[in-house]
Write a structure and sequence with these properties.
about 150 residues, Aspartate Aminotransferase, domain 1, globular
């Protein structure tokens, strides 16, 4: 596909970029770890902290702040990794996740909500948000979304 830029990101024969293949491998490792033993909240916390520590400084700052907000405003959510990203689950079902901009060489990080998040608002609603920084106004919006997501 000339001019689309996909040739740069898609180097393997199966159509997945190296970053996508890496995320799939991380997910497979997460599933193996879970199937071997019952994962504890402490394991999830340690895994999330390790993933945050691997991020570039700007993404790391946002991920740390998001982690603190989830712990403060939705303590019932369990930290875990999901495709190598920090995520938070309720009853084993993902509710919210943070994707570092560096993860897939994006120009922004992503705050995302999975289908079990209670964000329904009519026939259409957003489930992912681009993040460049967490300002006080952005933080207030994130807290509102987290509280609604777990309601």
């Amino acid at each position: 596909m000339a001019g689309t830029g996909t040739a740069d990101r898609t180097k393997s024969y199966d159509g997945f970029s190296d970053d996508e293949r890496s995320a799939m491998k991380e997910r497979a490792q997460e599933l193996k770890k879970t199937s071997r033993k019952k994962s504890s909240d402490a394991d999830g916390e340690a895994d999330v902290q390790a993933k945050i520590a691997e991020m570039p400084e700007s993404d790391q700052a946002m991920a740390k702040r998001l982690h603190a907000l989830v712990k403060e405003h939705a303590p019932e959510l369990t930290p875990k990794t999901w495709y190598g990203m920090p995520a938070y689950a309720k009853d084993g079902k993902n509710i919210v996740f943070f994707k570092s901009a560096d993860k897939f060489k994006s120009r922004y990080a992503t705050l995302g909500f999975e289908e079990n998040a209670a964000l329904d608002d009519g026939p259409m609603w957003p489930t992912s948000f681009a993040l460049k920084e967490i300002t006080p106004d952005v933080e207030a919006r994130i807290v509102d979304l987290i509280k609604r997501a777990v309601a």
